[in-house]
Amino acid sequence: MYTNEYYISRCLQIAINGLGTTGPNPMVGAVVVFENKIIGEGYTSAYSGPHAEVNAINAVKDKALLEKSTLYVTLEPCSHHGKTPPCSDLILKHKIPKVVIGCVDDNPQVSGRGIARLEASGCEVIVGVLEKACKAHHKRFFTFHNNRRPYIILKWAETKDGFIAPRTKNEQKPVWITNTYSRQLVHKWRAEEQAILVGTNTVIEDNPSLTVRDWSGENPIRVVLDKYLKLNQSYSILNDEAKTIIISKKDIEYEKNLAQQICGILFLENINSIIIEGGAKTLQAFIDENLWDEARIFTGEVEFSEGIIAPILKGKLISEEHIFNDTLKIYNRD
Ligand code: AOF
Ligand code: ZN
Questions:
Q1: Which stretches are transmembrane (predicted)?
Q2: Of the candidates 137, 77, 148, which has an alpha carbon nearest to the alpha carbon of residue 112?
């Protein structure tokens, strides 16, 4: 006999397949179980596509079994008509008698209504199985709805002696601190988040395109802080490979609560997660205003002796790994 926890674990395991494609939707996982056997499973399709429950139910070959099955799902089934019809209605239509849920959906359009709808029709509902793990899995979605801002990942690379960039640069080519493997990993990360943000100086110095060239996947929305609207079409960031949002002094007051005001704009753009890639001043603004969730910091082998000092951050070290000669440390905000 398998436990509820066992099947919710399986839901979490398949849910991760939606990473990078579902945003701003959460990446949910669902499995249908009949007599201790998984007879269907599914995860949230790319944004505006079917939800996890729909895919799991569709995967069940013998639909007659649904009347005697349990549906397991990481997040409360929805109750509203969004891009897709309500999952709770589909569950009731197929007369699934029992639903086991990881955590409640904090989207104000749902927040308990999916559960209430199921219960009102006589479906047995169990809520809160592996709740902590499910909430952690849906961190982007929960941060967005509860804090009214995206889940914020800070990323930078610093030299062995603590510099994020050289003081001055003569050539129009980037100075690499990390190796190609680390850089490839960053492209993977970009494909996992909905947006990426940098300051104007980073654009002017490095002329990055901020796309996922080295990894398959969607390019994130590019957000640039361009206070004085200095950028023009000659910069790669304004090419048509991805959407770009420019934030200038017409949009926000640059002098105070910069990060907070940016978060306000990102919330209105429905951006549930963002990776902030520099420069030092931009990163420090988010750190100083305590508006970050995770920091991914590379330390390379090179030394600059002088240059722009890397941001200072206090957080809880979650992991440390070596990518050949680079070190990658991941921190969470305490
Ligand atoms: C579910 N299962 O797999 C997901 C859910 O516009 P829609 O119709 O796609 O609805 C989006 C909302 O539905 C989203 O904000 C969240 O509350 C919920 N996501 N719900 O039952 C799923 N991804
Ligand atoms: Zn749904």
A1: none
A2: 77
Around ion ligand 2, which residues have CB less than 5 A away?
A: 51, 78, 87
Ligand 1: atom nearest CA of 109 is 17
Kindly give the distance from the C-alpha atom of residue 156 to the centroid of ligand 1, in angstroms, as a whole number.
32
Q: Which atom of ligand 1 is nearest to the CA of 77?
A: 21
Question: Is 53 one of the catalytic residues?
Answer: yes
Atom of ligand 1 at shortest range from CA of 27: 23
- Alpha-carbon torsion (127, 132, 137, 140), positive or negative: positive
Which residue is closest in CA terms to ligand 1's atom 12?
25
**Distance, CA of 328 to CA of 235 (rounded, Å):** 29
- Residue 78 CA to ligand 1 centre (angstroms): 6
Structure ipTM: 0.92
> Is the peptide bond prior to 128 cis by the omega test (within 30 degrees of 0)?
no
Q: Which of 41, 53, 76, 218 is catalytic?
A: 53
Crossing angle of the two packed helices 280-288 and 258-268, in degrees rounded to 10: 90
DSSP assignment string, 198-244: EEHHHHHHH------TTSSSPPPEEEEE-TT----TTSGGGSTTS-E
More confident call, 45 vs 166: 45
DSSP-derived pairing of the beta strands 294-299 and 221-225: unpaired
- Looking at every residue in the chain, the average pLDDT score rounds to 96
Of the candidates 279, 288, 277, 275, which has an alpha carbon nearest to the alpha carbon of residue 309?
279
Question: What are the pLDDT digits (tens) for 101-141?
Answer: 999 999 999 999 999 999 999 999 999 999 999 999 999 99
